[in-house]
Task: structure prediction
Amino acid sequence: MLQQNVAPTAAAVSNKGLRRRLRLGERIIEGWIFLAGLVAIVVLLGIIFILLKEGLPIFTYTNPWEFFFGTHWYPVSNPPTFGIAPFFVSTLMITVIATVIAVPIGVACAAYLSEVAPHRLSETIKPIIEILAGIPSVMMGFIGLALLSPFVQSLFHLNTGLCGLTAAIMLSLMSLPIIVSVSEDALHAVPREFKEASYALGATKWETIWHVCIPSALSGIAAAVMLGVGRAIGETMTVLMVAGGALAVPVSPTDPMTTMTSAIASGIGNAVRGGLQYQALFAIGLILFILTLAVNIIAERVLERQKRKFAR
Amino acid sequence: MNKSVKKWLLPLALILVLSLVFTGCSTASTPTSTSVTTTTPAPTTPALTGSFKIIGSNTVTPLSAVWAENFMKANSKVSIAVSGPGSGVGIAALIDSTTDICQSSRLITQDEINQAKAKGVTTYEIQVATDALSVVVNPSNPVSELTFVQLSAIYTGKITNWKEVGGKDAPIVVMSRDTNSGTYTYFKETVVQMAGLPTKDTTLEYGNKVLMLPSTEEGVSQVAGNPNAIFYTGLGYLNNTVKALGIKKTASDTAVKPSVETSLNGTYPISRPLLYYTNGVPTGAIKVYIDYCLSSAGQQEVLNAGFVPLKK
Result:
């Protein structure tokens, strides 16, 4: 998705005479790259295979309907019950809220950095934002516990600040750097002629950003948003620490909740290899995998349609 | 040169500030050991070498850490690694042969013994200390004692307001450890299911509004900051930021506060053994280590860590 921003100049330089004289070194490098690509595919298939092998047997104990829509998760009781509806709803809720918070702020920040801010200012701010991306998630969890959760609690008059909303805000902070950084690159890559043409027609700065820059950088921005969503779905430690960990199906974002990732993280150590809980947790992992795959496929479709719309 | 220095100066300053903030956080959240420690050195056994792991209960961890530290000071060629993700994790690790000692705050189940046998592991049980499982609330909470029936109703979600148990008109924020915890299982079997009472009901489970927290420290600090919260913890984690409740089995009994004395004389109703499990009878460095734990010097550390030593 990201490569689409690279200008296709390198390919155009190729020259028939040069191409005929393929040297041995080039062959070796080609083979090397081919192998690298193959390794990625083999690893991916291996992961899918293990997820299926370890996860599917749970459906001989709990039928899929009960597993997906059951609301009781008592893995260490006797007999255990496995219903993942609370985790599924929590993950969706937290991801959607985090995205809704992060995308407008992130894209606006990117537009500011790329189009409005003076060069020196954006040169200073960008590395700082990139450092924000490097803060370990457990530290973001600490910040959420110590600073944000008391604030959320008093702001919404809640019983406890450990809730989905706190987690979603922390996640939006964590996906912001990715969204800003990648969409800034995309906005930066918009040809100057586009903007100049827009200004020549008498458009204001705002009109140029909104009607020219953002639409032409849309594929890059969409990629940025998808990366952000991916981070939000997959993030574990922060959510485990601040989301509260209640096992009810959440009704409101201010309820304490457990996401699929934190259910896996808090349960896997306890699970004996090959046991029922182990299988159930792998099945959750499988669903998480399918979910991110679906997000990517949908993103690809949207992107395709947008590109056709703005085809030039 | 000058420019690149400038570019990195601001991020660097930011890192410094952040690290200061985090140092503040981490010192604030470490459990404070109130007693002045009178450490008796562990006996030195010449030529003792080896390294082993202790994995399991979060409750036992502070105790094991002190023992391991003293033991390593006296025997510099022995290295011991202690970690406390939860009793269930420790037992799973013992079954999978990924730990040498499992520390546990609950008894191993027959199921787990069988699973271990199937993998060629013979579990060997050693009681190393006793714990008075304490129920804690915020110091501002007027409630000072609860019965098993009331606690069970609170943790199953039947009672949701403090006024129903003689407190203020405020919702109860119920907190528990997650399913990894031995304390989770012990508290469920003993208190939630009301073991030893005529109202005993082994089908009872934690209510789905209960917050499942990944560590005991987090629970204690949440209770310290939330006037409506209730949580259970090992005696070793008590400090003056929380208030331990008096516990009684039925309304006609007298409520007893958790302490070393009430646990030793058997009047505190939720005392439980803290255990080490090994694969077979311990030998070598592990045997010397466990002998030290059970010696009078080792049991003095039990007292220092806030737990209840074994009866002589």
About this structure: The longest strand of chain A covers residues 73-74.
